Amino acid sequence: MRTLFPEIEPYSTHYIATNSGHTIYVEESGNSKGAPIIFLHGGPGGGTGPKQRRFYDPNHYRIILFDQRGCGKSTPAGGIVNNTTDDLLTDIETIRKHLKIENWILFGGSWGSTLALAYATEYPNMVDGLILRGIFLSRRFELDWFLKDVEIFFPEKYRTLLDFNESISKETLVDDYSKLVFGDDLDVAKKAAYCWNNFEGSILKLTYEKSDEVPEINYEDELARARVQLHYIKNNCFVDGDKILEKISAVKDKPIVIIQGQYDMVCPPKTAFELYEQLPKAEFKVIPDAGHSASETGITDALIAATEDFKKI
């Protein structure tokens, strides 16, 4: 099994101001003259970190990470005004031009796979290839699975989500959490945000190692993440997943790897299979002993195998 490359630090960081009130954090690591590859993080509302530089051979790749609007080191933290998928696609193009990159490889998992696919349908000529994990297209059945049906497998964890506050109902889950997370009581907002985020974090993997360590909680980060995610989910993530499937043939002849955990409880395999049906030349890898997380052994191995194979393009 392949493991992550050694830790590295960025050789360059950028803060790119937009004309709509957001400043986007971008970093570069690896080989400044290498093959450009951009990491598209999950969420919506996630962010980047040092571990995400390590899926790529730093001697070969020019590794680009950025925090999407409202996320991570981008500002304003948790900002939802002028924050849509189209805005993010514009940001990705702005980054490409700012860094003077002609074409690049897109590497994205979960919500990052959505962004990669949306970008590829809009800018197919800029894409050298795609490495995708845990495919998500924000169609109604996908959102219903995560927001409602997954209770079938995780009744106790889901009950914790519902029991946070007496105002929360399964049928109006997103609206109810939005009222709390965007409410005037900041203490309640932060705790509600942590509860919301923690639920997803608790179902990412097929198995979890038991730990007695008490996690250190950064409530400001939790609040920003939840605000962005709830904003996107309330708006079906500002994407038309069916249209993406219709248009993705624009990159059907480019190298594409689709990696999917067989027991992914966040983004079930049906969507990955439907994407593969539209891209029959793609390599489709179902990892039999994995869930959703890129940190699971089989998925990490498959992702790194893909970045090694892409050295040939």
Question: Would you spell out the secondary-structure blueprint of this structure?
Answer:
Blueprint: E1 12-17, E2 23-30, E3 35-40, E4 61-66, H1 85-98, E5 104-109, H2 111-122, E6 127-133, H3 140-147, H4 155-162, H5 173-181, H6 186-201, H7 219-234, H8 241-247, E7 256-261, H9 269-278, E8 283-287, H10 297-309
Parallel strand pairs: 3-4, 3-5, 5-6, 6-7, 7-8
Antiparallel strand pairs: 1-2, 2-4
Helix pairs in contact: 5-7, 6-7
SS-based class: alpha/beta
Order of helices and strands: EEEEHEHEHHHHHHEHEH
Number of helices: 10
Tally the structural domains: 2
CATH class of the largest domain: Alpha Beta
Tell me the strand percentage band. 15-25%
CATH fold type of the largest domain: Rossmann fold
